[in-house]
Amino acid sequence: MKKGMTFEKAGQELEAILAELSDEETPLDKSLVLYAKAAELIAFCNDTIQKAQITINEIDEKNANLPQE
Question: Cα–Cα distance between 19 and 2 in angstroms, integer?
Answer without folding.
Answer: 21
